[in-house]
Amino acid sequence: MAVVSDSMIEKLASARRSLKSSLEKSRVLGLALEKSGPRLEEINQRLPSLEAAVRPIRAQKGALVAVGGHINRAVSPAAAVLNVFDAVHGLEKSLLSDPRNDLPGYLSVLKRLEEALKFLGDNCGLAIQWLEDIVEYLEDNLVADERYLSNLKKSLKNLRELQNDEERVCLDGGLLEAALDKLECEFRLLLTENSVPLPMSSPSSLGEQPCIAPSPLPVMVIQKLQAIIGRLTANKRLEKCISIYVEVRSSNVRASLQALDLDYLEISISEFNDVQSIEGYIAQWGKHLEFAVKHLFEAEYKLCNDVFERIGLDVWMGCFAKIAAQAGILAFLQFGKTVTESKKDPIKLLKLLDIFASLNKLRLDFNRLFGGGACIEIQNLTRDLIKSVIEGASEIFWELLFQVELQRQTAPPSDGSVPRLVSFLTDYCNRLLGDNYKPILTQVLVIHRNWKHEKFQERLLVDAILNIIKAIEKNLETWSKGNKAWRSSGDSWLKEHDQSKDYYAAIFLKDSWGKLPSLLSREGLMLFSGGRATARDLVKKRLKSFNEAFDDMYKKQSNWVVSERDLRDKTCQLIVQAVVPVYRSYMQNYGPLVEQDPSASKYAKYTVQTLENMLASLFQPKPAKYVSFKGRQPSGKFSNGFT
C-alpha cells in the first residue's frame, strides 16, 4: 500500500512539473504574440505599397519568364555605362588640382577622361535604345502597368534629349571644360615666365651690337608646351592656344623694341615738311629694321617652328605671321611708305636709295621669314614700298637735268655769289657717283627700266650725270654774261674749284696708285742676311705682288676718261712721280738677282720706260664713245665718279 502511494505521488509530481512547464511556455508564447502584434500591424500597413510595386509586372508566370532575357540584355549595357560614370567622377579630384604640380600626370588623367567620355558618347545612345526597346516589348506584351510604362518613357525621353544637347557637358558635368581651362592657364603661365625681352646696352650702340638672338625657351619648357598643345588640339582648342601664344610672344618682341625709341614710326606725312626734317630718322630706320628682322623676328620664326612643328607648317607659319604683324613689322614698312609719299626734292633721292639699300640687304631674310602664304599682308606692303621707292627715285633722278635747265631762266644772285643750287648739285652728283650710292642707284635704274621693258646701258648713269654738269656749266656761262658782278666772283669760284680738283686728285692717288710703292719693300734685302738665294726669293715675291697689283689697277683704270686735258696730264704726272722712281731704283738694285733666272720675264715684267709710258697714257678721251660738249668741257670729272 505504501509503495503504491509513492508511485502515485511521483506521477502527480511529474504531472505537476509538466503542467507548470506548459504554463510557462504558454506565458512565453503569449508574450511573443504580444510582441509580434506591432510587427504584424506594420506588415499589414506595408501590404498596399507592396501590392502597388508588384502590380506593374503582374502577369502570368510564362510571360514573366519570357521577358527576363530581354531585360537582362538591356540592363547590361546600362550597367556598364553607369560604371564608367562612376569612374569619371573618380577623376574629378585630380583634374581640379593645379596641373603645375605634375603636368605629365595631369595630362595622363585628362586623356583617361577623354577616353571615358568617348565610351559614354558611343554607348549611352545604345543603352538608351535598348531600354526603349524593352519598354516597347513590355507595352506590347501587357507585362507591366500602363502608368509604370508611362513614367519609364518619360525618363528615357529626358535622357535622349540630354544626349543630343551639349552631350559632353551633360556626361561629365563640365569637368573636361574645367580641366582644359586649367591647361590654357598653365600654357600662358609657362610662356609668360620664360619670355624675357632682349636686353640692349643702348640704342646708339645698335650698329656695333653682335648678331645675337634671344635665347630660345628651355627644351623642357618647349616639351611641356607641345604636350599641352596636343591635348588642347585634340579637344578643338588649338585656335585659343595660338591666340595665347601670339599675345605673349608679340608682347615680348614689342618690349624688346621699346628700348629703340621707335615713336618716329608713327609720324604721318602731315607732320613733316620734307625729307630733310626726318633725315636722321631714316638713317635709324635702316638699323632698327635690320635689328628687328635678324635678331627678333628670326628668333620668333625658329621658336614657332619648335613649338608648333607637330601641328603642321601652315599652323606655325600662320602663328609667326600674326606675331610679326602685331609686334611692329608693319609699322616699319609703313614708315618707309610715308617717306615715299613726301614732297619731291633732290635729297629725297638719297634717302630713297638708303631705304632701298636697307631693304635689299634684308631681301633674303624677308623672303625666308615672310615668304609663306600666311604673310601675304607683309608681302604686299613690302612690294608696294619697293615699287614706290624705285619709281620715286627714278623719277627724281631723271628730272634733275630738267630742274637744272629751268634754273637757267632765273637771275643769278645779285651779290655775285655762287648760286646755292650750283654748289649743291656739284656735291650731289659726286655723292651719286661715289662708292656708296652709285651701285644702289644703278640697281634701281636697272630694275625700273626692266619694268618698262627697256634695256639699261652701262654708260647711262654716268652720261646722265655728265649732262647735268654740262647744264650747270651752261647756266654759269649764261649768268656770267648778264651779270658783271657775278663774273668777277665767278673767277673766285673757278679758283676754288681748281683747288678742289687738286685735293681730290691727291686723294685718288693715295687710295689707288699710291699703294703700289709699298709693295717694293727693301726689308730683309739690305745685308743679304739670309744669303743670295733667300734675297732672290724675296725679290721675286715682291715683284710678283707689284706686277699683280699694277695689272689689276691698270686694267680697271685704262678705260677711264678725264675730259679736261690739264687735269688729265697733271693726274698722270702725279701717278708717274709716285710709282716710276721707286720702281726704277728697285730694279737697278735688285733686278740683277732675277735677270739670270729662267723665268725672269715673269718677275721683271716691265721695263722702267714701258711702265712710264703706260701710266702717262691713262685717261685719254675716246671720241668714238663720247659725245663732245659745246662750250667749256666738264670741270674735271672722272667717269667713275672721282672728282
Automatic annotation (TrEMBL):
Record-level Gene Ontology MF annotations: phosphatidylinositol-4,5-bisphosphate binding
One GO BP: exocytosis
UniProt xrefs under InterPro entries: Cullin_repeat-like_dom_sf, Exo70, Exo70_C
One Gene Ontology cellular component annotation held by this UniProt entry: exocyst
Record-linked Pfam families: Exo70_C, Exo70_N
Lineage top rank: taxon: Eukaryota
Domain Exocyst complex subunit Exo70 C-terminal intervals: 284-483, 490-616
TM region(s), chain numbering: none
Keywords of this entry: Exocytosis, Protein transport, Transport
Function: Component of the exocyst complex.
Matches recorded under PANTHER family: EXOCYST COMPLEX PROTEIN EXO70, EXOCYST SUBUNIT EXO70 FAMILY PROTEIN
Family: Belongs to the EXO70 family.
Name of protein: Exocyst subunit Exo70 family protein
Gene: EXO70A1_13
